[in-house]
Amino acid sequence: METDLNSQDRKDLDKFIKFFALKTVQVIVQARLGEKICTRSSSSPTGSDWFNLAIKDIPEVTHEAKKALAGQLPAVGRSMCVEISLKTSEGDSMELEIWCLEMNEKCDKEIKVSYTVYN
Q1: Domains within the chain, CATH numbers bracketed
Q2: Rounded to the nearest 5 degrees, what angle is found at the Cα of 77, between the Cα atoms of 76 and 78?
Q3: 10, 58, 77, 99 — which has fewest CB within 10 A?
């Protein structure tokens, strides 16, 4: 990725990547829980409704995601993967899905991080 971002743009991009990664994990896991979720639409999302997704984070999922990331954000050459597996009563497990979030080196220098776009 281009490294000529100013410090504020880098900070904003890192914040975007962090929340995108954590929200991605929440969406993947919660979509597989088999529970129906109803939320009301809002024309003016709050600061916690990242990406216009008004789902409540499951604290255990957030904790495990942060632990897996170990303070490192997904970056070029460092992906984040979510594994959905099935565990049987006998203790066997089988991978059902693997979702990977990766970054590439493409960068549009004309685009600025804007909270009105995603938050």
Answers
A1: 7-118 (3.30.900.10)
A2: 95
A3: 77
Tokens of 46: 């709050």
pTM (2 d.p.): 0.74
Question: Other C-beta atoms within 10 Å of 49: how many?
Answer: 15
Amino acid of residue 69 = L
Residue with tokens 């984070």: 57
For the stretch 27-56, pLDDT in tens is 999 999 888 877 776 666 666 666 777 788
User: CB of 103 within 8 A of CB of 74?
Assistant: yes
Residues 6 or more apart from 55 whose CB is under 8 A from it?
26, 27, 30, 37, 39
